[in-house]
TrEMBL record:
Name of the protein this chain belongs to: Dephospho-CoA kinase
Keyword vocabulary terms for this entry: ATP-binding, Coenzyme A biosynthesis, Cytoplasm, Kinase, Nucleotide-binding, Transferase
Listed SUPFAM superfamilies: P-loop containing nucleoside triphosphate hydrolases (SSF52540)
GO cellular component: cytoplasm
Pfam families: CoaE
């Protein structure tokens, strides 16, 4: 069984994912996969280098993420080219990791699960939820970013209402970490039939 896990920035996705991992559940993390498909020697990095040139690399031959971000940020054609390259590679890797999972169920942790139409890969969807004011506060503290930057990220994500509409299960992360962990344990029991 594939359980998608998502939530807006600062909602507590990582805390919930870490608790599932501590219970021995295989985690497929979209952010990790996105980094893996552009590692040294990968098809992704080779194609990016062919397209953008060697200036997109750091001295050690790895991807200069800041330079890439700068190149595609205000260029919709380059951003589209990059997405058309990376999204299929990321999807293929995630599907392989799902196939390789050995735990009773696996967690597919994807920040943009709803936006990326990846709910179709999931048997169930968990949304980690908290009020938007709390998301904003947590993300600003965690990232050291300004209110404007976090608000613009939130505006680019699915709304809280859209995420909740896609949810089979909701983890309320508006209280303590212990409260979040209790809910993870309850869902774990439900998914394992124990």
């Amino acid at each position: 069984m594939v359980v998608g896990l998502t939530g807006g920035i600062g909602s507590g996705k990582s805390a919930a994912t870490n608790k599932f991992a501590a219970l021995g559940i295989d985690i497929i993390d979209a952010d990790e996969v996105a980094r893996d498909v552009v590692t040294l020697g990968s098809e992704g990095l080779t194609r990016i280098t062919e397209h953008f040139g060697h200036a997109i690399l750091l001295e050690d031959g790895t991807l200069n993420r800041a330079a890439l971000r700068e190149r595609v940020f205000n260029n919709s054609e380059e951003k589209q080219w990059l997405n058309q390259l990376l999204h299929p590679l990321i999807r293929k890797t995630m599907l392989q990791q799902i196939a390789d999972a050995t735990s009773h169920y696996c967690i597919l942790s994807v920040p943009l699960l709803v936006e990326g139409n990846l709910t179709e890969l999931c048997d169930r969807v968990i949304v980690v939820d908290c009020p938007e004011s709390m998301q904003l506060e947590r993300a600003m503290q965690r990232d050291g970013s300004t209110k404007q930057i976090i608000e613009s990220i939130m505006a680019s994500q699915a709304t809280r209402k859209e995420r909740l509409a896609a949810a089979d299960d909701v983890i309320d992360n508006s209280k303590t970490l212990a409260f979040l962990n209790e809910q993870v344990l309850t869902l774990h029991s439900k998914y394992t039939g124990q």
